[in-house]
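Weekly structure sync, notes
Attendees: PL, DS, HV (note-taker this week)

Item 1: MBL fold metallo-hydrolase
DS walked through the input record. Source organism listed as Caldiarchaeum subterraneum. Sequence as pasted into the shared doc:
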Amino acid sequence: MTLKYFVNTVGLLQSNSYIAYDSVSREAIIIDAGDDAWKILETIQRNKLKPLAIYATHCHFDHVMAVDDLKNALNIPFYIHRQDMEILLMSKEMTRNFLGIEIADPPAPDGYVDQGQVIQVGEEKLTVIHTPGHSPGSVCYHAGSLLFSGDTLFQGSIGRTDAPGGSTSQIVDSIVNKLFKLPDEVEVLPGHGPLTTLGWEKKNNPFVGEGGMLRRRL
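Item 1 (cont.): predicted structure, written out as tokens:
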């Protein structure tokens, strides 16, 4: 497998912004341009990567604040799941409410991703998995032993569901019936915090693992 990644932890909310790239062709995609565009650009330039597009796992403001600067700097398209369009349009207001700062209007997406779509990066392919729950249009990107899980699944936790469009029953279903169908050895690269593996989460996650409190309840 030639798909590799870099991660930058960005912004006041310490979001993980990933650059997934084919180590042979150096083609790359940016997954969650959360903030600090300069960090992402520096990583791209230092490693001589060829960015193709920006993809969001979801459109909460702490995952899209650098999109406009990166689109302008790199002249590449921006893709989201269509069901998160309303969340994207709310990002300016949510940034003001949560952080007390003003940002520019969010850029319009150049297109949309959907369940089962395949994204080509050099010789590698990432598959879109629609995982609603944290937001209606939350998605994960899976390629072999890597899963970019956004804010759906964290080490020992799951995404919050109390924001607009969130659903506890949906996020549990997304994790148990979609993500947990993947092999145990798949590495989970979340939107915040440290990485984990699906095998560890299946067994130990207190919410959705074996005997997890939400898994028992729903």
